[in-house]
Amino acid sequence: MTEPFQGAKVMLFFGARLLVMRRDDKPGIPWPGFLDWPGGGREGDESPEACVLRETQEEIGLLLCPADLCWKSPYHRPGWLSWFFAAHLPAARANDIRFGNEGQGWMLIPPEAFLHDAKAIPHFRTMLDFYLGSCRPIAAEA
């Protein structure tokens, strides 16, 4: 049985660059216009891995497999649990991205740029900083 959680996000690296998406700038959504990562809300009783893999395919048209997910961490806030993942793909796989209908667009940036961008979701910056400090170095541009 999977512990109840609200959703999952993935830090998706293509070579040494991080994929970010600009959220829609609509009233009523969390973090309008901010930089985001693939992922979203849980459906039914899916696992955190199934959630992030489904959302990634829906949002950027990229089919990942569970083995692509090299790291995961829960993120707890009062009354809220979500999961963060990381995946490292060759730079050329960015050619497979097919952006969906959520958000204003996507780009690949150095992860350090995300850490210092005022329009990056603050707790995502925290998770990326934790990941970069605790895990293997990012692979060189392939």
Automatic annotation (TrEMBL):
Q: Which Pfam families match?
A: NUDIX
Molecular function terms in GO for this entry? Answer: hydrolase activity
Any idea which UniProt keywords this protein has? Answer: Hydrolase
Provenance organism: Mesobacterium hydrothermale
Domain Nudix hydrolase, residue spans: 3-131
List the cofactors: Mg(2+)
Superkingdom assignment: Bacteria
UniProt name for this protein: NUDIX hydrolase
